[in-house]
Each structure stands twice: as structure tokens, then as C-alpha cells.
């Protein structure tokens, strides 16, 4: 279970919804459910390379098996680069 | 605070207060002797028997279609052993990051910037290679070009890529343009925020493209054999990246490529990608001989990644009590010839040092006929901070509040939302602001005729994947092998963390940067991650070893392992019936107790801690020439924990001075016909010793709870504040606020003259 | 292609090499003599990474044709240390963390030696101006200047 927050860009694919609660044990399951609920969101995430998530403030670049708790706050973001 | 006497640092570390024996001390770095003796081997320092020299022919035009390339004359030249053009490389996909990499290494149908690689020659001598490259006949059909953001965004602009449609705009545009992407972050209601504000300030800013300016030009030697294997000696920020990128460009399997990391002569983000390795590999394959390519300084400027120029419009509202209520920002960043994420990063950083109820940040990534951007220390953050912190300075003056107090008043803390969505973890911005407020420098009276400026800066820091192998040798010493190139002292920090874990003298530890076949995969040294992430792998391997050492002691004593503790480098028998066994005693006996001792750790480093820096400078401005002189400079930065304080200070000081260069002097200057007019260190002037004072440092240590020693990463954020610091100091000194960088003498003089009249 | 035979003294040793007339002394030192301490950062005399002392003068070896070295006495970074001891400048650079990537370090050491040979007790400002022809992108020069000042003290007052 986790609360997913959508950015302004992503809301164009969620019918304007800014957050949704998803019953998922990990990020892989969460992404699968999001794709079912918002079919065009997945393509948007792939196109924008938004393959990372922030869980409770920490940006995780490869989050596939990351566990979620009922209070987890999730943002779908792009992995960062740096110097 | 220190002034100009060594040691240069105060702060909470370097004084033993941490309780660590090794972490926080300042030993001589392990690779230091080779580097002061002139023995260290950088990429251009290797010569192999039979080696050829490669030379790359580059486009003299900023935008043109390649009609034909005739290499016949070149192939007939003396000494020439191989010639390649884009046609010799695999076809690039129609779009995406892979295309961008492949087409940056060598142009296919179209050249997109002056300096774009078109063809290459390998010959017996440098001069033969150069002469032959110049004999290649390329027929170009010139296309109209765009060199700056405004022109590139115009409706009638010549379009670089006919399959680039702006992302982030609904409905999706049906016409291609140079606007690659639009990014928006918003919270609250900015109009309500402006309505609640007593003061609203609206300004427009511009910054220019600058180069990372590493002193070592890109260089490599590649030796391909008849079985199709390639050995690459190259300097880079990550040799596993060199392997994968070279494989991608050539369409090879990575197992064909071994990359041996040379010492790296500076990178700052600029060596997180490749330019020449696949070209040398193909030349070597064709010639059957090793090939060396060394870029000239001119080529480094013309063809490797600058940091982007930007245009930023800020509108910020505040109440009379100093509370910033709202900010609206419009940012456009140059991406160079291919799409990047510069504006997106700028959007994430622009107001990150402030807590805002209402914000609307909109960014545009723009392609144009310049070399493609590459990261430069906290990419995109300096221009963003320049805009926001210049406006914040005006707000402080308008409400009559000390600029540090105003920043503390608006400072985010753990749990507050970031502008890009997630909440802040534990951060040290407030501590940095307080460190500067309490510094000797800030408390000192400003000398007559000078101006003082302050600003803050933010950067993410990242973790990614490291690997480390730690082997204990039979004499009780340790070898620490990691996959992170040592770009500024990381060998020493790896050794210090291993010393702390194992209880071993740091000088008994040999830190090694392993090639792609001796150590596990390790991501690029970027995002201030080497000491943070690779350090975690070192610590994990050492902890594994400590368990092994305890077991070996238990076997030696024929007791239960639970009775053995590891204390200060020795196994200690809890019940006290045995004399302690030193690490050397156990390794010396290792064959009898189960064989040699070694451990490897590979992981995904989690929990990189965001970094903040706050800085103050005093400047004087020559009213007759417009020259800005930095009289005094102090920087505070949250390092988490400083593993080797001298090299933490070094990162802080180096970042500051690069930022000063960006603020005061450095800029890419293009002619109307699209050629870089200052591709050398004479005309592209980076700061020199006589331009600067000492850079006083204050290491703030708010430990990162995700790292075993609290490391946060120190490499990048130091470059962020100097841009607004300089602008704010010049405004304080002259009463004139300049919003276009650099603050070079002609520009400052022009602004002073305009203000007078 | 005709090559010129050059005889000179490098770091106290009599050496000779063959070179093309248009070749730089920097390339000759590196490729013919294997002295890789001097680096090419720019090839135009702007960065100082190729600094050497030739006949008592600080020079950019990238701006000198190799045949011009005939008969000359040359000191490179490799010639600073004795068999059993580093030069005080080298030791102070190590202890003062005056290098990060290290590519500019040999040039700085040679330039600093040229300064201290002329002026054993320089002020901070004199050090900064004497080293203004050497570019360092890593350190911001702070620790380099401190280390040169410290080495000057050590050379003036041997332990």
C-alpha cells in the first residue's frame, strides 16, 4: 500500500488526479497496477525515462523490488545525473 | 574560522571530536608520490610498440548535410594505415539517447555543430595523421543554423531534428521544433501567493555556456586484436561507462572490451561520456595496430560538452516580515545538438533552498547548433541559483533584513516538501547558513569601498552501483580494489574507511582502482558519489572480513566464534583466556585456518544525502575598467562526515573557483557563422592564482544517516552559489545589479556607465 | 624524412635523441626520452602543464622546438627529487593536499622551483603572480599557494 503523487505532467495521464492510493507490496507491483489503471501513463513514464521513484523523499534509481508500506509516499521521477 | 593561515579549515571534523581513529584525519594520499614525481600515467602517457596516431577531421560548419566524403587522397598519403567515416559505424536508431551518443562520436548524414567529428585517420606519426585527415574531401550542403535559445525557440527557427516534437505539451505538437521538452512543477496557487505578498520582484537573467576546463584533454590508446578483442586505456570518470558506451557505438558485445583506467586529469562531469574511444577502436581494427588519439585543446572546446547557457525569468513575492510566499520561474536551457535534461534539473533546483507555499516552475530544454551538453558539477543548478538568489538579495534589501537571516527564515527542514514533490530527508542548509552567519568573515566589518554578497546552493547527490574487493595480505596489510576512478583523492578516502573498519593503520592499506576485468561493475564517478557509494561497498567488504577474521581466531583458539570480538585491529577473546591475535597474526596463519582472506561487495547505494552550500564574498570593482576583484571568500558546505578533510576542503575550494570563473569571465563566444571564437585558454580565461584570495572553508557536518560514516558527498554543490554571490557582491559594491553573466570588465563597465547616465 | 640529432643535459644526465625539425621539445621529452611528467594541456603556452626549466629559465616546453634544446641544460619534474628524498616542494604538496587530479602538478612544481630559486622568501602575492601561468582547475589554488609558502620556509630553515 502506498500513496502515489503525480506531477503536473503526469496528471495529463491520470485524468487530473494528483494522488492515488495503491495496494502494492513493492514498486514493481505498484507500476503494474498504475499501468492498468492509467494506460497512457506508462508510455509517458517510459518516454520521459521516469524509471526512478522517490519513496518518502529518497530518490531510488532502480526500485523494482523496493518494499512499500501503507504510509509510503511515492513520486515517479527520472533518475538524476550529476557531475 | 581560519583566515589565511593553514590549516584552511574549521568545522566540526578534522579535530578528532568524531571519535574515529582514522576517519577525519589527513594522511598523505597513497597515489601522491607518483603524482608529484611525474610518474603517474594519464591517458596520453602510454605508448605501445607499433602504435599509430589517430586524428579526427571535424566539421567547420555548424549545420550542414554531408553530401559526400572522399577519402581516396587521404588513403594514399604517406604513413596512413586506416581511414574511417560515419559509414563505417553501425546505423544509429532514429532517436533517443543511443542515437545521441552514436552521432556525437561521429556524424552520419548531418553535422550539427562546428567541431562535429566527420572522419578519422590513423597514421605512423601525428603529423602524417593530421595531414591525411585534412586531405579528406567532404562536400557539405550548408543548412541554416541557430546558436542561442531565443533564435532556436522562434516559430520560424531552422529545425535541427525533424522528428523532435516537444514533450510535455498537450496536445502534442504536430510540427517538429527545437524545443525538446517542457517540464512543470507546481504547488499551491501562485496568483494567491502574489496577492498575499507585500513585495513582488520580477527579473530576467542570462548565463553563458562554459566548459568544465579539465587540464587533461580527452585521450585514449586502443589495441584491437585479430580475435576482435579490444583493450582500451583511457581516462574517464568511469571505465565501465567507457566499456558500455564504446560497445553501444560499435554494436559490439561488452565482453569484447577491456578498459584499463588511466589516471584522470580532471573531469568535473565532462568525462562522464565518451568521444574518441570507438573511433580509435575502429581505426585499430582496420589497421591491426594500437591507435592513440589525443584531442587538442581546441577540439576539447569545440567538440566536448560544455555546461549550458540559460535564460531564466523569475517573479518572487514576499511579505514585509521576510517570508517568501511564492515564486514563478520560467527557465530555458541550451541542450546543444541533442536533447538533454538541463532545464528539468534547473526546474528541480531553482527554488530548492526555500520553503514556498506557492510555486510554478516551467522549463524548456532547447536544442541548437552547439556541442551537446555534458554534466558540469551540479549540472543546471548554478544558473538557477543565480536567478533565485539574486532576487532574494533584492528582497532582503527591500524589507531591510539581513540576507542570511532572511534565508534562515525561509529555510526548509526535514519533512518539508521539495519543489519537485518528495519531502526533504535530513539536510544541513540551516547549519550552513548559521556557519556563515557566525563566521569571522561575515562578522567582520566590510572594508571601505568593497561590496559583500551571500548566496546558497543546492544539489541532489546520487548513489548508484559500486563494487569493491578487499584482500588481506599474508603480512597483515590490505589491498582495497574499487571501480571508481580517483579524480581527487578518493583512494585516500577508501583507505581511511577501510582503516577505520579493520583497525589497521591507513598506511598499511593499498587502495587500487581496478580495471573492468578485476573488479565488479561500478557506475560513473558523478553526482558526488565515489566516497559515498563506493565507500559503502568498501565498508561492507571490510565488515564481511571482520566476521571472517573472528572465525579464524575462533578456529585458532578452538573456541566458539561468539567468544571473539574484533577490537582495534585485533581478535580479542571475550572470556580473556587468550592473548589477542593481531590481524597480521591471523593472515600470517591463514592457510592453516581456511585459506587467504578476501571479501567483495557489490550493491546499490541507497540514501544519497542532498547537499547545500552557503558562501560569502567581498569584492572590489574598478570603476575605470569594470574589473571585479575577489578580496575575500568563505564557503560553508554540508559534507555529512568529512572522511579526509583536506580533500573535502579541496572539493569545496575548487568548486567555488570554478563558480567564480563562470560568474566573472568564462563564456563560449560564437561568431555569426557558428564557429567558436575562443577555443583556447588564452581567450577562454579560467581563473589563475593571481586572480584569487585564499578560499576559506567551513566544513559543516550533518551526518547522512544512510551511510555508515555519515558521508553526504562533497564534489558538486560548491559551484552553485558563486554565481549569485558574485552578482550580489558587485551589486552591493556598485549599487548596480547586473543580471547577465559573466560579470566581465566590459559588461560591468557598460552597466556602471549606463547607471551613471 | 630527415631527423636532427640533439645533445643536451636533462636532470643532470647527458642525453641525446633524434627529432623531426618541427617537433616540440615537449613531445621529444615525452616520446623520445620517456619523461612523461611534463603534460600537454593546451599546446599553446597557456596552461603551464609542460613547464620545464631550460638554462635557468622557466619555459613552456610545448613552445620550444626540440632542436632548440641542443646544448641546453633542462630540469623537469622528474629531476626535483634526490635518490632518497623528495624536494621540499614535492613533500609540501603531498602534506598540504595541493593536488587533486594531479595533471597540473609537475608543471606547478617546476614553476614553483623556478620562483624559489630566484626568490627564496616570496610573499603570498608573489607566489600567486609567479604561478599565474600555470592553470589548475581542481584546487582553486589555495592549497598550492600554501604549500609553496611552506616549502619556502623549509628550504630557508632546514631542519
How does this model look, in words?
The complex is a heterotrimer of chains A (83), B (757) and C (159). Helices cover 29% and strands 25% of the residues of chain A. With 83 residues, chain A is of the alpha+beta class. In chain A, a hairpin with a 2-residue loop joins strand 3 and strand 4. In chain A, helix 2 packs across helix 3. Chain B has 757 residues and is α+β, with helices and mostly antiparallel strands. Chain B has a domain of 140 residues: Aldehyde Oxidoreductase, domain 4, CATH 3.30.365. In chain B, strand 28, helix 19 and strand 29 form a beta-alpha-beta unit. Chain C has 159 residues and is α+β, with helices and mostly antiparallel strands. Helix content of chain C is 33%, strand content 16%. Chain C contains 5 helices and 5 strands, in the order E-E-H-E-E-E-H-H-H-H. In chain C, a hairpin with a 2-residue loop joins strand 3 and strand 4. In chain C, helix 2 packs across helix 5. Classes of the chains: A alpha+beta (83), B alpha+beta (757), C alpha+beta (159). Chains in contact: A-B, B-C. Chains B and C meet through helix 1 and helix 19 of B and helix 1, helix 2, helix 3, helix 4 and helix 5 of C.
Q: Please tell me the overall pLDDT of chain C.
A: 97
Helix/strand/pairing category of chain C: alpha+beta
Tell me which CATH architecture of the domain at 463-602 in chain B applies here. 2-Layer Sandwich
Task: Please compute the radius of gyration of chain C using only Cα atoms.
Answer: 16 Å
Unreliable residue stretches of chain C: none
CATH class of the domain at 463-602 in chain B: Alpha Beta
- Tell me how many strands of chain C there are: 5
The general outline of chain C is globular
CATH architecture annotation name of the largest domain in chain C: Roll
Amino acid at each position: 500500500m502506498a500513496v502515489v503523487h503525480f506531477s503536473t505532467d503526469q496528471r495529463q495521464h491520470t485524468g487530473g488526479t494528483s494522488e492515488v492510493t495503491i495496494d502494492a507490496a513493492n514498486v514493481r507491483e505498484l507500476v503494474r497496477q498504475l499501468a492498468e489503471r492509467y494506460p497512457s501513463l506508462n508510455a509517458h513514464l517510459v518516454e520521459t525515462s521516469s524509471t526512478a521513484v522517490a519513496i518518502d523523499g529518497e530518490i531510488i534509481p532502480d526500485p523494482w523490488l523496493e518494499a512499500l508500506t501503507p504510509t509510503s509516499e511515492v513520486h515517479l521521477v527520472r533518475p538524476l545525473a550529476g557531475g | 574560522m581560519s583566515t589565511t593561515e593553514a590549516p584552511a579549515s574549521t568545522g566540526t571534523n578534522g579535530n578528532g571530536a568524531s571519535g574515529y581513529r582514522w576517519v577525519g584525519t589527513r594522511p598523505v594520499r597513497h597515489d601522491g608520490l607518483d603524482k608529484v614525481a611525474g610518474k603517474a600515467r594519464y591517458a596520453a602517457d602510454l605508448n605501445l610498440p607499433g602504435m599509430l596516431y589517430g586524428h579526427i577531421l571535424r566539421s567547420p560548419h555548424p549545420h550542414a548535410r554531408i553530401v559526400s566524403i572522399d577519402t581516396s587522397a587521404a588513403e594514399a598519403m604517406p604513413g596512413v594505415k586506416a581511414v574511417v567515416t560515419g559509414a563505417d559505424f553501425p546505423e544509429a536508431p532514429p532517436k533517443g539517447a543511443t542515437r545521441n551518443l552514436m552521432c556525437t562520436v561521429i556524424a552520419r548524414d548531418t553535422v550539427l555543430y562546428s567541431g562535429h567529428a566527420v572522419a578519422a585517420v590513423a597514421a605512423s606519426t601525428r603529423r602524417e595523421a593530421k595531414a591525411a585527415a585534412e586531405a579528406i574531401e567532404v562536400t557539405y550542403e550548408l543548412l541554416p543554423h541557430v546558436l542561442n535559445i531565443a533564435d532556436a525557440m522562434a516559430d520560424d527557427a531552422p529545425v535541427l531534428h525533424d522528428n523532435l516534437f516537444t514533450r510535455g505539451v498537450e496536445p502534442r505538437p504536430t510540427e517538429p521544433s527545437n524545443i525538446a521538452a517542457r517540464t512543470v512543477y507546481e504547488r499551491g496557487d501562485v496568483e494567491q501567493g502574489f496577492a498575499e505578498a507585500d513585495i513582488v520582484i520580477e527579473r530576467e537573467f542570462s548565463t553563458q555556456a562554459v566548459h568544465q576546463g579539465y587540464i587533461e584533454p580527452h585521450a585514449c590508446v586502443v589495441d584491437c586484436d585479430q580475435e576482435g578483442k579490444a583493450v582500451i586505456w583511457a581516462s574517464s570518470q568511469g571505465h565501465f561507462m567507457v566499456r558500455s558506451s564504446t560497445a553501444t557505438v560499435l554494436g559490439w558485445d561488452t565482453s569484447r572490451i577491456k578498459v584499463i583506467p588511466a589516471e584522470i586529469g580532471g573531469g568535473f562531469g565532462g568525462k562522464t561520456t565518451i568521444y574518441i574511444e570507438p573511433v580509435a577502436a575502429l581505426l585499430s581494427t582496420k589497421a591491426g595496430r594500437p591507435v592513440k588519439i589525443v584531442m587538442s585543446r581546441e577540439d576539447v572546446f569545440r567538440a566536448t560538452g560544455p555546461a549550458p547557457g540559460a535564460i531564466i525569468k523569475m517573479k518572487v513575492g514576499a511579505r514585509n516580515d521576510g517570508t517568501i510566499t511564492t515564486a514563478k520561474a520560467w527557465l530555458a536551457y541550451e541542450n546543444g545538438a541533442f536533447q538533454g535534461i538541463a532545464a528539468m534539473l534547473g526546474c528541480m533546483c531553482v527554488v530548492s533552498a526555500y520553503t514556498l507555499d506557492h510555486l510554478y516552475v516551467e522549463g524548456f530544454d532547447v536544442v541548437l547548433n552547439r556541442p551537446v551538453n555534458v554534466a558540469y558539477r551540479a549540472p543546471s543548478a548554478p544558473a538557477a541559483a543565480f536567478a533565485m538568489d539574486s532576487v532574494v538579495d533584492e528582497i532582503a534589501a527591500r524589507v531591510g533584513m539581513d540576507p542570511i537571516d532572511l534565508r534562515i527564515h525561509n529555510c526548509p527542514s526535514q519533512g518539508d516538501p521539495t519543489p519537485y514533490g518528495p519531502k526533504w530527508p535530513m539536510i544541513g542548509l540551516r547549519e550552513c547558513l548559521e556557519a556563515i552567519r557566525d563566521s569571522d568573515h561575515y562578522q567582520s566589518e566590510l572594508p571601505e569601498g568593497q561590496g559583500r554578497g551571500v548566496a546558497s546552493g543546492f544539489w541532489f547527490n546520487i548513489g548508484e552501483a559500486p563494487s569493491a574487493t578487499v584482500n588481506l595480505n599474508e603480512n597483515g596489510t590490505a589491498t582495497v580494489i574499487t571501480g571508481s576512478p580517483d579524480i581527487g583523492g578518493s583512494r585516500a578516502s577508501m583507505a581511511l574507511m577501510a582503516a577505520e573498519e579493520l583497525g589497521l593503520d591507513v598506511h598499511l592499506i593499498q587502495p587500487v582502482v581496478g580495471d573492468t576485468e578485476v573488479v565488479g561493475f561500478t557506475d560513473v564517478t558523478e553526482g558526488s558519489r565515489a566516497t559515498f557509494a563506493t565507500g559503502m561497498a568498501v565498508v561492507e567488504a571490510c565488515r564481511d572480513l571482520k566476521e571472517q577474521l573472528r572465525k579464524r581466531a575462533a578456529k585458532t583458539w578452538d573456541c566458539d566464534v561468539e567468544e571473539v570480538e574484533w577490537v582495534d585491529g585485533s581478535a580479542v577473546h571475550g572470556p580473556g583466556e587468550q592473548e589477542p591475535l593481531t590481524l597480521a597474526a591471523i593472515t600470517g596463519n591463514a592457510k592453516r585456518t581456511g585459506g587467504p582472506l578476501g571479501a567483495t561487495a557489490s550493491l546499490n547505494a541507497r540514501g544519497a544525502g542532498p547537499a547545500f552550500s552557503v558562501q560569502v564574498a567581498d569584492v572590489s570593482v574598478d570603476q575605470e575598467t569594470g574589473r571585479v576583484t575577489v578580496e575575500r571568500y568563505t564557503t560553508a558546505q554540508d559534507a555529512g562526515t568529512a572522511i579526509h578533510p583536506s580533500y573535502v576542503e579541496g572539493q569545496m575550494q575548487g568548486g567555488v573557483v570554478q563558480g567564480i570563473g563562470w560568474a566573472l569571465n568564462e563564456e563560449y563566444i560564437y561568431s555569426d557563422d557558428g564557429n567558436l571564437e575562443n577555443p583556447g585558454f588564452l581567450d577562454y580565461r579560467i581563473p589563475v592564482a593571481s586572480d584569487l584570495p585564499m578560499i576559506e572553508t567551513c566544513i559543516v557536518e550533518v551526518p547522512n544517516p544512510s551511510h555508515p560514516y555519515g558521508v553526504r558527498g562533497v564534489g558538486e554543490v560548491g559551484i552553485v552559489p558563486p554565481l549569485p554571490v558574485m552578482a550580489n557582491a558587485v551589486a552591493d559594491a556598485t549599487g548596480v545589479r547586473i543580471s547577465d553573466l559573466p560579470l566581465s570588465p566590459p559588461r560591468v563597465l557598460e552597466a556602471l556607465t549606463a547607471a551613471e547616465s | 624524412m630527415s631527423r636532427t640529432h640533439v645533445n643536451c643535459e636533462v636532470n643532470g644526465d647527458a642525453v641525446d635523441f633524434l627529432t623531426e625539425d618541427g617537433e616540440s621539445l615537449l613531445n621529444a621529452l615525452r616520446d623520445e626520452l620517456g619523461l612523461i611528467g611534463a603534460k600537454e594541456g593546451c599546446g599553446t603556452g597557456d596552461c603551464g602543464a609542460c613547464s620545464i626549466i631550460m638554462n635557468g629559465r622557466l619555459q613552456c616546453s610545448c613552445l620550444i622546438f626540440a632542436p632548440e634544446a641542443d646544448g641546453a641544460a633542462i630540469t623537469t619534474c622528474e629531476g626535483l627529487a634526490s635518490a632518497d628524498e623528495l624536494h621540499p616542494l614535492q613533500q609540501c604538496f603531498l602534506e598540504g593536499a595541493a593536488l587533486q587530479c594531479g595533471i597540473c602538478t609537475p608543471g606547478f612544481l617546476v614553476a614553483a622551483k623556478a620562483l624559489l630559486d630566484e626568490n627564496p622568501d616570496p610573499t603570498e602575492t608573489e607566489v600567486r603572480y609567479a604561478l599565474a601561468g600555470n592553470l589548475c582547475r581542481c584546487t582553486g589554488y589555495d592549497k598550492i599557494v600554501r604549500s609553496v609558502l611552506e616549502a619556502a620556509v623549509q628550504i630557508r630553515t632546514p631542519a
